[in-house]
Amino acid sequence: MGGVPAERIDEVMGRIGSESARMATLVEDLLTLARLDEGRPLDISDIDLVKLADNAVFDLQALDPTRTVGLTGINGRTPPMTLIVPADRDRISQVFTNLIGNIVRYTPDGSPVEIALGRSGDTAIVELRFYRADSSRNRRSGGSGLGLAIVSGILAAHRGNASLTKTKGGGLTVRIELPMA
């Protein structure tokens, strides 16, 4: 009674391992949210959002070489050479990492992505636009479901925000706004 048949041990151990990893991610995400709620001080320095966007392009292409990833200006022009904001580099990097993870996790392989940068007055803007190239192929979802809450919390701590809108042609645009001063 209660024993696992020998032929299923590998399967059961694999499931235990994947559930353990999922729980570890959940705990880490909950700790991140708790730290944000505590109001721990930010380590503010001048960071270049263009460099973070370049890193995001590289990461997306490394995670899915079939994916077309473009960097552009907000209005379809050439992106700015730099876009400097006072921010905590690690936390803003986590914003990009969480959003890229969602793009890879929730869009079909090969779906194009566009990262647009610019400014409006004293506000820096980054938009991650992703499309659904083939809605019949869905990625297996995973994660804690807390990624966007963490993004929102990090941006709020920086006096910024994020918004979601539908992308023309099908898909989603995540717009990040951060004060430049």
Q: Helix/strand-derived class?
A: alpha+beta
Q: Averaging pLDDT over every residue, what do you get?
A: 85
User: Share of helix among residues?
Assistant: 40-55%
Coarse morphology: globular
> What does the largest sheet look like?
5 strands, mixed
Description:
The protein is an alpha+beta fold and 181 residues long. The chain has helices at 9-38, 49-63, 89-106, 147-157; strands at 44-48, 69-73, 84-88, 113-120, 123-131, 161-166, 171-179. Strands 2-4-5-7-6 form a five-stranded mixed beta sheet, with helices on one face. Strand 4 (113-120) and strand 5 form a beta hairpin. The protein starts with 8 loop residues before the first helix and ends with a strand. Residues 134-141 have low confidence and may be disordered.
Summarize the structure.
The chain is an alpha+beta fold. The protein has four helices and seven strands, in the order H-E-H-E-E-H-E-E-H-E-E.
Keyword list:
181 residues; five-stranded mixed sheet; two-stranded antiparallel sheet
Helix and strand topology:
Elements: H1 9-38, E1 44-48, H2 49-63, E2 69-73, E3 84-88, H3 89-106, E4 113-120, E5 123-131, H4 147-157, E6 161-166, E7 171-179
Parallel strand pairs: 2-4
Antiparallel strand pairs: 1-3, 4-5, 5-7, 6-7
